Amino acid sequence: MGRVCREFNERIQETIERPVERWEERWVERRRERCRRRRFRIGRFFCRLLTELVRIVVRVVVFITVTVTRWVTRVICEVNCFILDVVAFLAFQVLSIPGIGGILRTILNWVTEILWRLIGIVDFVLSLFGLRIRKKMYVGLIIPRRNGEPIASEAALMPQIEAAQNLFDTQCNIDLIYTGMCSPKYEPREGVLTVNCDASGFFADWGIAGSYFEWVSSTCRFQDGWRRLTGFGSEILVIVVDNILPDTPTTTTEGCSFAATHNYITVERSAQIMVTAHEIGHACLLRHSDDPNNLMTPLNIPPDPILTNTQIAIIRWSKHCVFI
């Protein structure tokens, strides 16, 4: 069941069932008080009996209404989402073609980024002034295989995911929802899991490496693929790799993101705990910061980094960050 369909079902319950339950509690309490004031026992008895009968009828009607509504909307939503996901999957197969697919992928991702930034300009302004209604971002984990075995364990990467969740929750009022891990059986070619995070890497991503990353993204995350295609609430996929370059005698690169160019980021298996959060920041168009205490410092990210007011507004403004 797609995320959108689950949320619609939850909204139906919140919109119909819970308000009726609150009304019922208040109404029953008032009726019981009136029944206690009746002079004769027989009057109090029938008053209470009528109250209970009305309450039972209301509960049955609400149960039937909510159940039927949820099933109808679920079926309609599931069918529509499946069709959209199939269309998105076919589109991703084209975008996985080395060369032309990589170019089209880059253009599409930047167009959707600009489009949703324009649509979300009001929320950006409100965020700058400190009005930050709870939003959501989705993040998933993809761990490639070598010789039939995943190159890392989910448990080894979870501290990074949890650190990112805590950071975006406390500083941005964003619920970073972890959607789980996938380890595709299709193994990458030699050298694909060594990523160059520079200009050469940007263009190299139009080739075999980018084709592999896009293909495993579409197969591992078939459900809600239409979100990645349209950009609306696009899930950020964390792809684990062997090595990320460039490295120098004094510094090492442990994560990489080409901003809105992709719906995924790459991190090394043994990266620092805040690297995933840092790369998610890049995916949301944050630039490096000269402040050594900031999340976007390029070196030695502190365990408890900060974000500026403008950085928070930019993250919340991203196409990855939505209300539903």
Question: If you had to describe this structure to a student in words, what would you say it looks like?
Answer:
- Helices cover 55% and strands 12% of the residues.
- The mean pLDDT is 89.
- The longest helix has 55 residues, at 41-95.
- It has helices at residues 3-36, 41-95, 100-119, 121-128, 154-172, 199-204, 208-220, 225-230, 275-283, 309-316, and strands spanning 135-142, 145-146, 149-150, 174-182, 194-196, 236-241, 243-245, 255-256, 264-268.
What kind of oligomer do you see? Answer: single chain
Report the principal-axis shape: elongated
- Write the element-wise H/E pattern from the N-terminal end onward: HHHHEEEHEEHHHEEEEHH
* Percentage beta strand: 5-15%
End-to-end separation in angstroms reads 15 Å
Q: Report on the biggest sheet.
A: 5 strands, mixed
**Low-confidence blocks of residues:** none
Describe the strand arrangement of the main beta sheet, using strand numbers: 4-1-6-9-8
| SS-based class | alpha/beta
Query: Helix count, per DSSP?
Result: 10
Q: Nearest-angstrom radius of gyration?
A: 25 Å
Total beta strands: 9
